[in-house]
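Supplementary Methods. Inverse-folding protocol.

Structures were first reduced to a discrete structure-token string of length 94. This string, shown here, constituted the complete conditioning input.
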């Protein structure tokens, strides 16, 4: 891209162009990985995932685990009383 063409775009448009080019390159890489997997399966070789070929971490399809910090009702009430004293009760106008 020539400099005069570059200056025709806003920074947001340019960032979108770069992001689009990155996504296209990632899709192309993924398509090549799919082809490689098909060749491997045709030759009865060890199975391998797309993520292994592309070199990215496994996609986490499970929901993230919830924090299991158990808080007693007294602690919750104390925290609520503190917040009400500093911020005011819900529904009150100041």
């Amino acid at each position: 891209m020539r400099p005069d063409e570059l200056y025709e775009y806003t920074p947001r448009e340019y960032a979108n162009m770069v992001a689009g080019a990155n996504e296209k390159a990632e899709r192309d890489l993924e398509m090549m990985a799919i082809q490689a997997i098909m060749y491997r399966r045709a030759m009865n070789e060890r199975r391998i995932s797309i993520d292994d070929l592309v070199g990215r971490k496994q996609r986490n399809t499970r929901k993230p685990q919830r924090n299991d910090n158990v808080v007693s009702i007294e602690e919750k009430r104390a925290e609520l009383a503190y917040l009400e004293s500093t911020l005011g009760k819900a529904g009150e106008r100041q």
